[in-house]
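Checklist before submission:
- one chain only
- standard amino acids only
- sequence pasted in full

Submission:
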Amino acid sequence: MAMDYVGKIQALLNKAEHPNTPPAEAEAAAAMAAKLMKAKGIEEAQIRSSKGQDPEEITLMVMEMPIEHGTVYYEAVYPLIVAMGGEALADTHKGEMTIVGTSSLLDSLTVLLTSLSLQMNSAFNAAGDKREAELRKLHPGWDDQQVWDAVDQWCWDYIRGWGAGVAEKIRARVGELADEAPGNALVLQTEADRIRAAYRKMFPHTVKLTGARKQHYLATAQGRQDGRNADIGDARVDGGGKATRAIG
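Returned file contents:
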């Protein structure tokens, strides 16, 4: 018997959106909803194929992005989108990212990116608090502005690594979904190929986004390690730190 994806997803979204749900549980519920949406999309694609129906339509979704931090947020989010099988175009002047995918994929990404944005801010704040304490101990003569500038640069490199670490975890999870049934791998590959082809047709003259130069590779490495512990629907993640900064 097929899983009641719609009912389970709606229950998880209701929990995630309820004001009395603790933040960590809300993040976990939203992430699990995204995982089920992905599985639902696979199943629907298989049903369409078995019935000889046309594949699901590929469409666009525009996501607003913060512009005050240059390309950092784009660099963190883009690998997550690709890991899920989508593609995206960044417009750093307008503060937008145009995501290309099937409706099912875009639904999954909407929920997952909401959950990951909360976790990203938590990780960013925790990393910033730790780095600030280290710098004040190492450089007691620095004024507040010197410390804050150095902390910001550290955190930008950290969050780039965090996005890459989460993307690695998502790719592993998508691989698990592909292994759950013989047809899943083919469906995922076919859908990803269709999305990439549609992206190239829609935006034939795009160039790769040039990110800011990294200065702290240790920060990026730490971010990547922490990103692998993010909650994408499989477990809780314990974030910490004072809410002193935000990247979104």
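Reviewer check: The radius of gyration is 19 Å.
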